[in-house]
Amino acid sequence: MASLTLASIVYLLAVREFFSTPTFSRRVVVIGLVLAAVWHVQFLRVPAGAEDDIHRYVWDGRLQRLGYNPYLVIPSDPAAQLLHTPETRSLNNPDLPSPYPPGAQMFFRAVTAIQESTFALKVAFVICELAIAFVLLDVLRYHRKGAHLVLVYAWSPLLAIEVAGSGHIDIVGALLLLVSAAALSRRWRATAAVAFGLAVAVKFLPVVLLPLYWKRIRIRDAALAVAVVGLLYVPFLHHWRIPTGSVGTYVQSFRFNGPVFAMLDRVAPPQLLAGLAVLVGLVTATWLRRVTPEGSPELFAWPMAATLLGAPAVFPWYLLWLLPFLRAPSALLMIVWTVSIFPTYIMWHWRTLGRPWGALPVWVMLLEYGCVAIAAGIIWLRRRREAGRAGTLSD
C-alpha cells in the first residue's frame, strides 16, 4: 500500500504536467512509453493470485476446446473434476458457471488454443494494452492533440497492476471501445458499430453508451453489429435459449465497494437497482451528447463511470474501461478515482492471511470516494475563483 500511495502521488503530479504543457518532444514520449513497458514486464513476471479471475478464463477456454458449454458446467461439480488442471482448481466462485459474455469466451478460447496457461492470457492482455497505446497515438494525432497525453494512459498504476499483474478481460473490451470511438469520429460507421457490439459482447458495461451512436450510424450498420453479436451467442445456445451464466447471481448476491447500491439495496430489489444504474448511464450519455463537443473523449468515460457508481460491485479493474478516454482536464475526477480505489486491495491482502471475504470496511470507502469528493471541491473552488477574477477584470 505504501508503494501504491507513492506511485499514485507521482502519477497525479505527472498528469498535472501533461495537462499543463501543450507538447513534449517525441524523445520524451518514446522514453515514457519505454519506461511503462519496463515496469509492465516486471508485473508480467509475477504469477497471478490463486483466486484471480484469470484462472476462470483458462477454465472457460479449456471447456470450450473440450466441447463443453461454460455457461452450463459448474467447476465444483464432481463430474467435472477430471477436466481441471492445476491452474484451474483454485478458481474463485467454483459453485457458479461462467458470467462472461460470448465475446470474452471467444477470446479465452482463442488464447488457450495457442497455450493453455494464465501467463499466455496475461501476455495477450498486455498486447491489447499496447495496442490501445498505438490507437491512442493515432487518435491524438487525428485530433491534433499532444502525443504526450498517451502517457496519462500508459503510466496509470492501475494498468500495470490489473493487466500485466492480475490479467483482466476488461482491457480487451476497452481496446474494442476505443477502436469504435476512433472509427466513429472518422465516420467509419460500420466499423464503429461492429467494434461497439464486440465491446458489449466482452462485458455489458459500455451498453450505456448507445445514445452516443444514435443517428451517427446507419440502420444497416446497427443491424450488422447485432448480427455479429448474435453469431457469437450461437455456439452457446442451450435449447435455443440465450445463455446468461451466473450474471443473475452476480446482481443478486455480489456486493463490493458499491456504497450507493448498498444504501438503496435495503428499500428496492437488486434487479431494479441494477436497471437504475444502467438508466443513469444512458441519461448521462444522452445529456453529455447535447452539451459536450463531439470529439471530447470524456463523452465515453462519464456515462460508464456514472453506471459504476450505482453498481452492486465496483472492482478496481472495472475502471480499466475508463482509462483510454481520460486524456483531458475535464476527466480529472475519474483519473483520481483510478488511484483512490487502491485501498480496496486490503481485502485481497486479508484473504492471503486467511480471513473470509466480507464487507469492505467503511473507512476504505470513505478514503476512496472522499479523495474524489475533495478533488471535486478543489476544482469547484478554483473555477469559482477564476470566474470571480474574470468578472473583476471585465468590470
Describe the structure concisely.
The protein is mostly helical and 395 residues long. The chain has helices spanning 2-20, 26-44, 54-65, 102-114, 118-142, 150-154, 157-165, 170-185, 189-202, 219-233, 247-253, 259-264, 270-291, 298-309, 332-340, 346-352, 362-394.
Structure description:
This protein has 395 residues and is mainly α. The chain has one domain. The chain has 17 helices and no strands. α1 (2-20) runs antiparallel to α15 and α2 (26-44) packs across α7 (157-165). The longest helix is centred in the last third of the chain and has 33 residues, at 362-394. It is globular. The N and C termini lie far apart (50 Å).
Write the layout of secondary structure elements.
Elements lengths: L1 H19 L5 H19 L9 H12 L36 H13 L3 H25 L7 H5 L2 H9 L4 H16 L3 H14 L16 H15 L13 H7 L5 H6 L5 H22 L6 H12 L22 H9 L5 H7 L9 H33 L1
Helix pairs in contact: 1-15, 2-7, 3-4, 4-9, 5-7, 5-8, 8-9, 9-10, 13-14, 15-17
Distance between the termini: 50 Å
Helix/sheet category: mainly alpha
Q: What's the SSE pattern?
A: HHHHHHHHHHHHHHHHH
Shape call? globular
How many DSSP-defined strands?
0
Strand content: under 5%
Helix content: 55-70%
What is the total domain count? 1
**Biggest sheet overview:** none
Total helical elements: 17
Radius of gyration: 21 Å
Mean pLDDT equals 92
* Low-pLDDT runs: none
